[in-house]
Amino acid sequence: MITKRIIPCLDVKNGRVVKGVNFEGLNDVSSPVTLAEYYSKAGADELVFYDITASSDGRALFTDILKETAKNVFIPFTVGGGINTLSDFERVLSCGADKVSVNSGAIKNPNIVYEGAKRYGSQCVVLSCDIKRVGNEFRVFAKGGREDTGMEAMSWIKHCIDNGAGEIVVNSIDTDGVKRGFDIEMLKAVCDFATVPVIASGGAGSAQDFVTLFKEIPDIDAGLAASIFHFGEVKISDLKELLKNNDINVRI
Amino acid sequence: MIAIIDYGVGNLFSLHQSFLKIGADTVVTGDPSIIKSAERVILPGVGAYGEAAEKIKNTGLDKIVREVVSDGKPLLGICLGMQLLFEYGTEFGHNEGLGLLKGHVKTMRDEIADGLKLPQIGWNALDIKKQNKLFKYINNGDHVYFVHSYHAVDCSDSLIATTEYGAEITAAVARDNVYGCQFHPEKSGDVGLKILKGFLD
Q1: Which domain covers residue A49, as residue numbers?
Q2: Would residue A102 count as lying in a domain?
């Protein structure tokens, strides 16, 4: 049966991994290529690269890095950040990316989901969604979680799936950075109706949080995290052993 | 030399890199003379069956593929490229394939449980049914990366491996010098590179 996926996420700015990292045996901890190779060897099932560069020079550096990664790392990777047009899809796919993640770009121009799926297939289009509770509803936030769009999150996700989004990354702003576990309630709400894979993001503070995630929501497909992997708090190889020991089907 | 056939379907950067990684002299090309001069040929593909089948016919490369196969050269189809090796596919209507292998390609929806998502996206275990050089360097149960909604059926004479996704799904086929992988060896880590290495043997 298909395995549950563990996905480290790398934020890249001007060609370097942003969050501080400290690994034994890694000389250049902020090199995305080195880190990607390290994660791949440790058993990561997939990688996500977010380009948080603002300048065009940085953007060019980013595509160089994607190519370097694709020459050395042979697991799937998704690219997000600054994806607004089909030419942005083309730019990253031609560097070896497998999937393209749209977030603010889709909020600004919802057609990008449909257009991307039509040209590259649904499996290629990932909708990434930053969600926060406002009053009684789940609300979509834009601009890295700073701006309330006023859109109700579940209908937004459903709309994007109907338009061809092939995978959904649900990032809970409420649990992100708190490190007390994934937002089970929010994720369940998405899994209740989603007909495409759902990836949990935001809140992982320990390996146990992933066990809880997969036990509480058998339909969830993957868990994504950044800092706990980057800081070496959780080793992917140890995490997968723990999952396996808890009867969760993983690739080891 | 290995030729990866470029007929305008999907991106071939990673596939090219994976062969370079295992030290194989490899080119990505749509040039018939280069393809014919290669020792081994790779037929890739992503997207929809009909469109890909049409593209390979419009470029005339279908004839080149047949020629390569009748010359006895090893041909490896990957993902949709593997599906094209069969007689026909029923994705968005009936579309003729290359007919190099017996069987056809249909949606997995009718066979798998209702709750299961399509496409199947992710890592799944190979259940090797018949030993083959593709598996020379790997073990039964090793995981490979799948992205697909359709699979080959009625292909018992070429079936060499399956995977379990709510039903037994065709994962790899081989008959004489024609090989195919439904999964993506170029995205299946060390296991995938070993499968490509086996193909080169």
Answers
A1: 5-245
A2: yes
pLDDT tens readout for residues A10-67: 989 888 888 645 555 555 668 899 999 999 999 999 999 999 887 777 788 899 999 9
Show the tokens assigned to A175. 């649990």
Is A64 annotated as catalytic?
no
Classify residue A166: in a domain, yes or no. yes
Q: In this structure, is residue A251 part of a structural domain?
A: no
Domain CATH code at residue A58: 3.20.20.70
Task: Return d(Cα B103, Cα A222) in angstroms, integer.
Answer: 34
Residue A25: what pLDDT? Answer: 56
ipTM of predicted assembly, 2 dp: 0.93
pLDDT at residue A55, rounded to an integer: 76
Domains in chain A: how many in total?
1
Nearest to A222 by CA among A52, A63, A48: A48
Among B156, B145, B149, which residue's Cα sits nearest to residue B111? B149
CB contact under 8 A, B117 and A122: no
Instruction: State the pLDDT at residue A146.
Output: 86
One of B16, B151, B155, B186 is an active-site residue; which one?
Answer: B186
Cα(B7)–Cα(B65) distance, rounded to whole angstroms?
12
DSSP β-ladder status, A222-225 and A198-201: parallel
All residues of chain A having their beta carbon less than 8 Å from the beta carbon of residue B21 are: 71-72, 74
Contact yes or no for B121 and A96 at CB 8 A: no
Nearest-neighbour CA in chain A from B122: distance (Å): 6
The Cα–Cα gap between B139 and B164 comes to 16
Tokens 């799937």 belong to residue = A76
Global confidence as pTM? 0.94
Q: How far is residue A30's CA from residue B148's CA, in Å, rounded to a whole number?
A: 34
Neighbours of B33 (CB within 10 A): 8
Locate tokens 């490229």: which residue? Answer: B81
| A45 in catalytic set | no
Which position among B16, B79, B91, B181 bears the catalytic label?
B79
Please check whether residue A209 lies inside any domain of the structure: yes
* Domains, chain B: 2-200 (3.40.50.880)
The per-residue pLDDT for A29 is 66
- The pLDDT tens digits for B62-107 are 999 999 999 999 999 999 999 999 999 998 889 999 999 999 999 9
Burial of A195 (C-beta count, 10 Å sphere; 0-12/13-18/19+):
exposed
